[in-house]
Amino acid sequence: MTTMVFGVPLQALLGQLLLGLINGSFYAILSLGLAVIFGLLNIINFTHGAQYMMGAFAAWILLNYAGIGFWWALILAPLIVGLFGIVIERLLISRLYQLDPLYGLLLTFGLALIIQGLFRNYYGVSGLPYAIPPELSGGWNLGFMFLPKYRAFVVVLSALVCFATWLLIEKTKLGAYLRAATENPALVQAFGVNVPLLLTLTYGFGVALAGFAGVLAAPIYSVNPIMGADIIIVVFAIVVIGGMGSIFGAVLTGFGLGLIEGLTKVFYPEAASTVIFFAMILVLLFKPAGLFGRAA
């Protein structure tokens, strides 16, 4: 006999929760990268979605043109995307730190359109397949549901990366330098710290997180030039809900809203694509700084 929960089969409910947790993993990593860049550099990085897409394409290109598989791509693709971000930061974004954040938003939005257009022109809009690594194919039969190994791996690895990033920013000497450099760069430089290099590496790290998420997404979603455009608006909404610049808020809200989105697909499917934006409206009405943000 099928177990029912609020009139819904338990297997269907758990399946949607797993799907929501998978989406929440990508929301968390992407929101984390955005929060790092905005919180430490005060730049609203609208290129983040394009850089997420570049991570997936880097993994696909490494596999199809260099024979480099998934495990090495997890390391190399974020480095490639991060280096691209460093070049962008040095040439363009570094000139905007003293200006209104709106200038950074407009610049990165334009860059996102250019990058997406270049990939669409070369690869088209049809999805390119990327196989799950053999070590993670298949899954476990838990009795009440089938748990794919790769999706469980994505959830666990995403949580570990988010936790490690939080530790780096909040609990290490390097993180203290980063936070101090955004508040008083002249004072930090007086202690012999190369502040411009620190800011450049911070942007590169935030971009590398987007590339890392793209590699994880490649075996689950099709690799295509518009995959970043589909997710970036949702991720920005999550960052606003968690609190602009709040690393803890970005991670917790990303995972939490992924689960809420999964539950909504079970009980009220028509609202699944808008529930995150509805949550954003409520948060902005009652706590404009976000759930974990600080008032200006």
CATH class: Mainly Alpha
* Average of the residue pLDDT scores: 86
Query: H/E series, N to C?
Result: EEHHHHEEHHHHHHH
**How many structural domains are formed by the residues?**
1
Strand order of the largest sheet: 1-2
Q: What is the percent of helical residues?
A: over 70%
Strand percent estimate: under 5%
Uncertain residue segments: none
Query: Based on CA inertia axes, which overall geometry fits?
Result: globular
The total of beta strands comes to: 4
Individual helix count: 11
Distance between the termini: 56 Å
What would you call the structural class?
A: mainly alpha
Main beta sheet: strand number and arrangement? 2 strands, antiparallel
CATH topology: ABC transporter involved in vitamin B12 uptake, BtuC
State the CATH architecture.
Orthogonal Bundle
- The radius of gyration over CA amounts to 20 Å
Structural account:
With 296 residues, the chain is mostly helical. The chain has one domain (8-286): ABC transporter involved in vitamin B12 uptake, BtuC. The protein is built from eleven helices and four strands. The protein has helices spanning 10-41, 48-66, 70-91, 101-123, 149-171, 173-183, 185-190, 195-217, 227-242, 247-267, 275-286; strands at 4-5, 8-9, 139-141, 146-148. Strand 1 (4-5) and strand 2 form a beta hairpin. Helix 1 (10-41) runs antiparallel to helix 10 and helix 9 (227-242) packs parallel to helix 11 (275-286). The chain is globular.
